[in-house]
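chain below, 360 aa
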Amino acid sequence: MVRAAVLPAVGSPLEIADIDLPEPGPGQVRVRLAAAGVCHSDLSLTNGTMRVPVPAVLGHEGAGTVVSVGEGVTHVAPGDGVVLNWAPSCGDCHACGLGEVWLCANALAGAANIHAKRASDGSDLHPGLNVAAFAEETVVAANCLLPVPDGVPLTDAALLGCAVLTGYGAVHHSARVREGETVAVYGVGGVGLATLQAARIAGASKIIAVDVSPEKEALARAAGATDYVVASENTAREIRALTAKQGVDVAVECVGRAVTIRTAWESTRRGGRTTVVGIGGKDQQVTFNALEIFHWGRTLSGCVYGNCDPAQDLPVLAEHIRAGRLDLSTLVTERIALDGIPAAFDNMVAGKGGRALVVF
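prediction:
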């Protein structure tokens, strides 16, 4: 048996339970988790903002060691360190044909599979966002695994599976920040902290972090922020004051709330780019008038998984880590056990801390 964090139903509290995990079948791999990050997307599954079949074992940002492999698996072997890729591309759909693998139409098809059974009653469990990382061990499709890059500690590598890829990609692939540009990052959680570091790596001249919590300023500055603004109704005005009344070249929204998206847009200079990373609910309606769209000439874009191809981007991130440009330790504000996940969710709702990391 394996201990895991189970979501019984949308809106229900997370439960730590024993599950019966099958041995890997053809094309599957069993992995012993070293660590798993607690991401806001997991919280979004519990409250129904994002929908997958339930009951489910949650967790999608993780890394571990291969225990065993099923028939036909050749690219990993027992003992290998691996990063979980929760959104593997199929290679066959329209988006994949365009090279936009982050938009793969079949990336989450595995979430409908039966992953394991609850030990107490034998009921079926689904694998959350494909990989069920909130567990001591998991069984995943082989295409959900990428090798841990050389020089990256296995526990730290968990963060590469979502927060770092998303933040790095938002800056380098979606917003395409250029050296010398000014950047504002809304939301100083795990993804926001990764975004701040990515903006520094890109050579941004001014990096403004925005959050509702004054207590996060030290975290933001350690990640690369040159300025810190406590969110208020005057946020856009404050950012313009910090940028010679122009607004930033790029604003990255990592919260997923209508008011924050609107503020990020308003703090972007004329002709600048606003990138939305945060996942908001259908009730979060953002309104623009036709005249302002014409007048400001800004670009507003969504960003899925950092618009990344993990197989291509992980080696790039690893080089930044080895060179000391990317410090994963600045993202983690709490290391917890499996049963600490519900409290970590509460902290996210309250806007406290950066990334909580489950260490097994």
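The mean pLDDT is 96. The first helix runs from residue 40 to 46.
thats it, cya
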